[in-house]
Amino acid sequence: MVVAGDEDDSCVEPGVFIKQICPAARLWLCPATGHAVNVEEPGLFNQMLLEFLTLVDEGRWRPRDPRSIAVKH
User: Fold this and answer.
1) Which long-range contacts (CB under 8 A, 24 or more apart) does 48-54 make?
2) Going by C-beta distance under 8 Å and a sequence separation of 6 or more, which residues neighbour residue 24?
């Protein structure tokens, strides 16, 4: 799980890159937030973290379906 604030320009592009090269990666861009997502939006961050950890703990975190990956021309 890659987390970035959508106002943190230095982390959005690397987050997209990681998502593109790692089939199991998911990118969560927190709206109207900078670099410190956990400080700026603690409730939302904790909710997303709990959902992520629950999926992993239950063995339900899976790579994306290859059909969902856009083909670059």
Assistant:
1) 48/1, 48/3, 49/1, 52/1
2) 61, 62, 63, 64
pLDDT of residue 15: 95
The backbone region for 22, taken as left when phi is positive above 0, alpha when psi lies in -120 to 50, beta otherwise, is beta
Amino acid identity of residue 40, one-letter, is E
Q: Taking a C-beta distance cutoff of 8 angstroms, is the pair 52, 45 a contact?
A: no
pLDDT at 69 > cutoff 80: no
The tens digit of pLDDT for each residue in 19-68 reads: 989 989 999 999 999 999 999 999 999 999 999 999 999 999 988 887 87
Tokens at 57, concatenated = 């703990």
CA distance 53 to 1: 10
Round to whole Å and give the CA distance between 25 and 46.
18
